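Task: encode each sequence below as structure tokens.

Item 1
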Amino acid sequence: MIRGKQPEANLRLTYSRTLLASFAVSVLLHGLLFAAFPEFRTKVSQKAEEPLIIQLEEIPETRQERRPPAPTRPVVPIATESREVADDVTIDNTDVDLSLLDELPPPPPLVEEAAAPKTIELEEEEEEIVELWKVEKQPEVTKRVVPEYPELALKANITGKVFVTVLVNKEGKVEKVGKVTGPEVFHEAAIKAALQWEFTPAIQNDRPVKVWVSLPFTFTLE
């Protein structure tokens, strides 16, 4: 006896109808998506750069004290027992004829020596370096330079943070570099960048002054 499938369980009979229905639903859904979103735009997000924080260190002011010169010591005669003149040597008597003094010409008149002009040596006033916390207006960065990553540290995958203390002059330029702390492999790059920084001058008593400023540099690998 040959047994066949029931029409409800035979999928071949409903295959074409199911395929067409699925295709129609898919086309309808795509049409609705295109109608709802006619344009597709993407937004490019940029990674915000980390802010550069300037840490200011308090450096004590150095002053040079000038002491007055020591007074000259008086010459005190010291007695000695040595005798340069022998006992048997005598000094002959000398006769002075005072009558010859009248025949001598009178001495020339005294000429007053012209007073030599007094020279006043003015010591150059040393420019005072004011402590940063004392100034009325602290310097602000107008130009900053990011140091180049040293090739040696890049190959060795070394990271770190360096602090460079610089002297900012009255024009806001970096005059010289002081103390440098941090990994030594980054010192040269940090100093080279710090010398190119520029600031607004520090103000004390309504005039620009010199101050020491500490600049931090962070070296990280992205």
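Item 2
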Amino acid sequence: MPRSWYPSTTPQNLEKWKFPSCRTCNEDYGRIEERILNSVGLCLNHDHKATKGIVEKALRSIDMDSAKGEKDKIARQSRKSSLYNNMVIFDRMPEIGVLPNFGGNSRGTYNYLTIPIYADDLFAFGEKIARGLKYILDENKYLGHEYKVETFICREEALDDFEKFLQNMGKEYNRGPGLKVIRVVATDDIDVSISKIVIWESLMLYIFVDKNSVDEL
């Protein structure tokens, strides 16, 4: 997880996970993670232990007064304009397309103010997480490109049996209040895995790694 995504309540002595990356991928993922933080971060509860400081970071990223120079000011203005121009107001919560844990609250006179997020950004971030977990948890080993990484976004209640499987068979890793991982590795192929990633106790990603796609299994 990017360092900027860790809430301010993260213990100072916690070693933040990291793994090697080429410069191009690092820059590409940096832009993806910035977009996710700037949009999802604004939809979080700023008083929660798992999100402390994240909303403020998202707001600061579009605050021109916090700019370090003219170039940075222009970039912040561009992010703010893009964010505002893409917001949509609904008079009722849409039945589809809303991230789990991010719907159901109407505030003031705005009804349901929504911030669009790119699905491809979440899928790409899921792949990064899967490859990072492989390297960190499996003794610095890389995930071969013959393995497919698929990321799913579902409500927990829709996956009751699968949730029980994760709880019974998975190993849990807590990295402070902002990040939790539950991971199950296949006994006959340690490169095959299923993981549940919970970020800020709100954003949930289910990640499958196999040589075949989920539809083919």
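Check on item 2: The longest helix spans residues 119-137. The chain is about 35% helix and 15% strand.
End of task.
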